[in-house]
Amino acid sequence: MRTAVRTSLVPAAVLLVVAAAIVGRRLVASGVELFLGWPPLLAEWLPHVGPGTPAAVVVAVGTVVWGPELAARLRWGALLAAGWAAAFAWTLSLALVDGWQRGVVERLTSGEEYLHDVPRVAQLGGIGPMLRVFSDHILTTAVDPAQTWFWTTHVGGHPAGAFLLFTVLDRIGLGSGGAAGVVVMLVGSSAAVAVAVTLRALGHEDLARRVLPFSVLFPGAVWVGVSADGLFAGWLAWGVALLALARGPLRAFAAGLVLGYALYLSYGLVLGALFPLAVLLTTRRWTLLVPALAGVLVIVAAFTAAGFWWFTGYEYVKVIYAASAAASRPYAYFLWANLAALAFALGPATIAALGPGRETSGLPRAATWLVGAAGAAILLADLSGMSKAEVERIWLPFAVWAVVACGALPRPRRWLVAQAALALVVNHLLLTVW
């Protein structure tokens, strides 16, 4: 039975955020370059409203008032459709607080983003030649006089699969900032449904129904709209969901294909392997491991045959990362300030649900494994030092699973209000880069 939840971790998180802000500003004042306008977030103070403001309020109010009841009684298919629609509406309306041009179109078309480099694919002779020389244009310090250019920050900083997706979007007529931004938000917001599908497949439909409204009003939606990391979150979540649904080798193989491609979206998603591991530990369907790994290996073999070797790309990325803004960002500060930034994406409900205390009812083992996987992935990513700042978006693929803990919260409407309020305050007081 769910009972009262100790909320001591929420004040602690608030203190952590305040400390990160104060220390961050002092570091900047002392001459340390953090490249953050509003530590610990990559944002700047700019109170504003926009065309998305009324829509965001309507979605938030509707989800708070009717979300828990509808989640409990709608038939499953209708619930998934409604959940995805609501999550997308929430993400899009938050993005539109900054306006269509600034909040959507320009997010993926800046000089540091994916769409900026798409024309280079044609210059190189197509997708095949691009993949063969992709690693040759990662290092910004190359001494080869024949190399007169290098990929933009986000293209070169990720495996070739991420850029390949945006190249394909361009080939099918969705290469504009607006169209690609909508696709990113559609895929990113679908993570809410994928998490619910996973929980139901693991035998916990009631928990899935309780969690879904929290996944809809996920504060991290501020960064899902529009950052490629939101798309990565959705992609990884569906790979995990497919594995949870698998009862035979064919679906496990399909799950492996999706999970394998996730490795080529972001180097950090190698930590995403913790989530399918959590599924297998829960279900004990170890016979699915072989076909799932076969699917992963097919993707690895395909990229390798095309000319992109993951480990070479990763070694080069470590070089450019060390010479980037990370060079002046102190590890000792971001080791804990990263957690303060992540708190904005998780929201008070998730933080309260993750807090210790005898009053907190235990989650089912499956949910505990998934939440534990999220915590372990975040801890490992933090300790690695490869994510100093900007984790409010970088860790979205892990954060969406931490929300599962909210299924144990009593009085869900109160906590849904807190989640929505945080996202609305952040998006209306700060101008985020994503």
Write the layout of secondary structure elements.
Blueprint: H1 9-29, E1 43-45, H2 52-73, H3 76-96, H4 100-103, H5 114-124, H6 127-133, H7 153-156, H8 160-171, H9 177-189, H10 191-201, H11 205-216, H12 221-224, H13 228-245, H14 249-262, H15 274-283, H16 289-306, H17 310-322, H18 331-354, H19 365-384, H20 391-394, H21 396-402, H22 412-429, E2 430-432
Antiparallel strand pairs: 1-2
Helix pairs in contact: 1-18, 2-3, 2-11, 2-22, 3-9, 3-10, 3-11, 5-8, 9-13, 10-11, 10-13, 13-14, 13-15, 13-21, 14-16, 15-19, 18-21, 18-22, 19-21
Portion of residues in beta strands equals under 5%
Helix content: 55-70%
Q: Residue-averaged pLDDT, rounded?
A: 95
Q: What sequence of helices (H) and strands (E) makes up the elements?
A: HEHHHHHHHHHHHHHHHHHHHHHE
Sheet/helix structural class: mainly alpha
Q: So what's the overall shape?
A: globular
Please state how the strands of the largest beta sheet are arranged side by side.
Answer: 1-2
Radius of gyration: 21 Å
How many distinct helices?
22
Count of DSSP strands: 2
Describe the main β-sheet briefly: 2 strands, antiparallel
Distance between the ends: 40 Å
Low-pLDDT segments, ≥5 res: 1-5
